[in-house]
Amino acid sequence: MQRSVGARGAVRSPIDIGNFAVYGDMHASTMKETAAPEAAPVPATVRWPTLPFFRPIAPPLPGLGKECTLELMDRRSVTGELMRFEPGAASVDMRPNGSRVQTVKIKQIRTIKLAELISLVPDKEALDAMGATVRQVGIGKPFSIILRDGSEIAGTTRGFIKDKDGLYLFLIEEESPLAIGCFIPACQMKDVQVGPLLGDTLINNEFVDSETIAAALNTQTTLRQERIGTYLTDRAIITQEELTLALTEQQKRPNARLGDVLLEAKIITAKQLKEALAIQAKQRERRLGDILIDMGAVSVRLIQMALSDKLGIPYINVKKFRLDPHIRDLLDPAFAMRHQVLPLRRTEESLVIAVENPLAIEFAQDLRFTTGLTIVPVIADPDELKARITKEYSRLEYRALDVGSGTSLNGSAASGKEPSKADLTNVEDLADQLTRETPHVAAPAKLRDADTRVSDNTLVRLVNKIIVEAHTLGASDIHIESNPGNGNTRIRFRRDGELEDYLDLAPAYRNSVISRIKIMADLDISERRHPQDGKIDFRKFGSLDIELRVAVIPTTNNLEDIVLRILGGMEPQSLDNLGFSIRDLTELRKMITRSYGLILVCGPTGSGKTTTLHSMLHEINQPDIKIWTAEDPIEISQPRLRQVQVQPKIDWTFAAAMRAFLRADPDVIMVGEMRDAETTKICIEASLTGHLVFSTLHTNSAAESILRLLDLGMDPFNFADALIGILSQRLARTLCTKCKRARSATDKEIADLLEEYCSDTSLDPATVLARWQYSFGDDGRLTLYEAVGCKACRNGYKGRLGVYELLVSTPQMKHLVRSRATVPQLTEAAMNGGMRRLKHDAIEKIWSGALDLHAARTVSA
């Protein structure tokens, strides 16, 4: 019997409609119903943001669905109850009138309109705190949105919220206090205009009068080379000195380019824009805004204030703004400095932040996730913002590096004095300070270690700083590599699966650094001949709530290397965000709702197996289920999970933990790894006696995992009965979405990929090509994407994505397992059951634009 778990427990069968898939019978007139009926009512999760600087008269009741009208891109409309709508999700759930809950992809939605009218009144307290007026935000704003299909949506909105997911409007008629919530996905929008033209805004704010604007335009008509901004500057209305990066950042807006904004506002002419674009075509590294500045432009402060009124976003003087220290502490210092963001005010549901450009804050979703609050951006001058952030957070970074020993950072007793100039926080500066504090080594022929008593405090800060920056940069491992003789000690970080250089330390400090790390991990600092393993609880030494797994390895010339794996601080991911195909995701959700059986995840070290396992557990983690896990180490924590750290040194092994779990009334058991025959046998026996068991293997493919377990001596009949499925996976570096470059695939490239895709299979290349052109093509033309590189990424790559093959245990597969079939036989049977091999998934992720050829072939070769 299958167990229905939460909102996703109901089994739905995907049916392709055109270029997308929905679930169930949303278009019952055009398809046959295949979805199973729901077993239980589905709880609603609708997270619709609150309009900044307004408050609803009647707050919405939590946990309830919302009546809505969903308009698809083919202009068909569906009325019903919105059951799941979350920022960043790739799909929504709704219950059409008289039907069951359906799932629809965001990319197929034109608009979502809530049926219930929202009563909005200005939040005077919030406006007063920001120094804004009701007039700035209370006036309805006309809007016009051009969609990618050429159609237009226009009307009047009380205000709006725009993030990378899309545009939230609050539609009104005239000046009514009642509004209708409307969402338009970002993927559908081509151009957005909210509010009046900029020239009208300047007049309405009495920055200039209509006669001055008309005179400037008339003058510019005669003198084509003179900018309207320069003309107004000469009249002392707008000053050049106030120009900063805020205007240039406008070009990064995905739906409102800088040139179009200035052209629409009649600040520049089409000829001037064409000239600037021609310059940019020759000098690709220059931003359009910088070019326009060099050509002469208006004051950016005045433009920012005009845009502030146009967009309904207050302009804040952060230089004089009184900041609550408790609000400041909501952000990590490194995060605030890296993204140039300053928190100003917190309400029960929102966090107001000052940024340079509120329309280009890619980190908003990360901040929303870490704080649990709706993010409300306001505008600030970038120079004043940078100075205030530096002032507010510099001391916090000192405290983050302090070891809690009761001494200040310069080694003296804590006295409340300001940090001295020697209290450096840059890692290179700390290394240089360590050099200055260390006595000169007189005999280079026989290298000696530095006197750690002289520079102990700086050494402590340096090691802490390395760990803090590794975590901030998203590194998974820190490698400290000692070199003999006069060779520097090299420190490298592993990020997105690749090692990169971080710091070189003089050879005199290598033993001091290693000894410091051993002390933090409670290891023997005198032992240099044998490897040692340990853990660091960094909460004892710094502000981060993380753990580090420490491996000390003896190397040549009586030296030692250290590798630190950063653990903790991770949250389980949704299965929707891991990059599964529709087939794999559907099958996987069926598998994890089984009441008993064995599910395996296989792949090499660092392929994301633990993340996938915890995502599966997160999917079924409900109050009525008891879940035990045995892990080494515990990298991800979840509420309600009973997690156990195995310790082989005291004979608390995976097998011992499994035996204990079976006496503790479990429903689900997760074992970190099947390392030996005893653990494997107990897992199979547990899965046959009414328990759902998850585990991992270090194998190269799903089919090979079956032979590996049979080689361990498992009974093929028991194993075949227990097995539900095997997921094999790798992690591939994904292309940066901001700078990746598209180009048409050549006939040879398509032929090579077809040959690679179809080799060793019975697939027909012509059929595969037709499916590619239908699913990924633009009028039949296939597109490849290449890495470019920008400030937001590393050499054109940012983040990693899973590449998968999912073997489902069908009756044919169970028969082959019992008969000890070969790997090719098992693979062929799995593909007949719908499995795609790793290379198939990787190649299709190439056509979808997530991977390039190099990244795909790296993980699927």
Draw up the topology in text.
Elements: E1 14-17, E2 20-23, E3 45-46, E4 54-56, E5 66-72, E6 77-85, E7 91-96, E8 102-105, E9 109-114, E10 118-122, H1 124-130, H2 134-138, E11 141-147, E12 152-163, E13 166-171, E14 178-185, E15 189-194, H3 198-204, H4 210-222, H5 228-234, H6 245-249, H7 258-264, H8 270-282, H9 288-295, H10 300-311, E16 315-316, H11 325-328, H12 333-339, E17 342-346, E18 350-355, H13 364-371, E19 374-380, H14 382-401, H15 427-437, H16 456-472, E20 477-481, E21 489-495, E22 498-505, H17 510-520, E23 532-537, E24 547-555, E25 559-567, H18 582-592, E26 597-602, H19 609-620, E27 627-631, E28 642-645, H20 654-661, E29 668-671, H21 677-688, E30 692-697, H22 702-711, H23 716-722, E31 723-735, E32 741-744, H24 747-758, H25 765-776, E33 783-786, E34 797-808, H26 811-818, H27 823-832, H28 838-847, H29 853-860
Parallel strand pairs: 3-6, 16-19, 18-19, 26-30, 26-31, 27-28, 27-29, 29-30
Antiparallel strand pairs: 1-2, 4-10, 5-6, 5-9, 6-7, 7-8, 9-14, 10-14, 11-12, 11-15, 12-13, 13-14, 17-18, 20-21, 20-25, 21-22, 23-24, 24-25, 31-34, 32-33
Helix pairs in contact: 8-9, 12-14, 15-16, 20-21, 21-23, 22-27, 23-26, 26-27, 28-29
